[in-house]
Amino acid sequence: MPELPEVETMVRGLQPTLSGRTLRRLEILDSTLLQGCTSGQLVRRGRGATVAGVTRRGKWVVMELAGDRGIIVIQPRMTGGFWLVEPARPEHIRLVFHLENPGARVWYCDARRLGKVCWFANGLAAAEAFARSHGPDALEIARTELARRLSRTSRGIKPALMDQKVLAGIGNIYADETLHRAQIHPERPASSLTAEEVDRLHRSIGEVLATAIELEGSSFDAGYRTVLGLEGGFLAQNSVYGRKDQPCPICEGPILKTRIAGLVGRPTYYCPVCQVLG
Ligand SMILES: [Zn+2]
Predict the structure, then answer these.
(1) Within 10 Å of residue 100's Cβ, how many Cβ atoms?
(2) Are residues 154 and 103 part of one domain?
(3) 179 C-alpha vs ligand 1 centroid, how far in Å?
(4) What is the mean pLDDT of residues 34-59?
């Protein structure tokens, strides 16, 4: 599932191809992904529009069209992704951006069709929609704001970190990596963290996400790929996620794989020596 580093990698990959470029047309192959507009409306707004910029907000890809054409927001959710090269699985193509330059295209594919393509009239409307369902971006949240938000919930720290309304962008992989780096047990009640622990956690979030962005995210199975169809490199050098029984990079003891309350169907990896419940 694309988390913040994967979406940031998508955005950085799309920028050189889309920013400042003019769309000849949008081709919508699956209108069930659309929200806030019909297929016909989106096609009209996209025709001949210049893409003013491509940015990220949490796990959203935000494309601003110049000249009051509005904002297209794509939420890749579970299996969405962009391709600058011919997609490996053409049956999963849901949306095609045809650029002015003949033959130049950007594909949006989504195997399980759980992603969304939304249209907003302007940046303010998109920002308001985001704020209704999300907390601050995980790369931008201030330490004091993180502390304030965690102090309000007695849920386990891991599900709290993954709650997009607390902070936006962190899912299962980066929650495990961040908590290991901060040496905090995933089931610690969020509100029980000391000021020093919140400091460590805040610093770890920034460091883990920065490393993951540098390595172009995490790929496993047939899931996330970069816009060039390549695998991200983070899981080749991470600490705990997917590493059951392998040595902890801090203490060399075995990493445990478990399930914790509040996270149905998703595994949790941690080091029982470095991350003590207390
Ligand atoms: Zn350890």
Answers:
(1) 12
(2) no
(3) 12
(4) 96
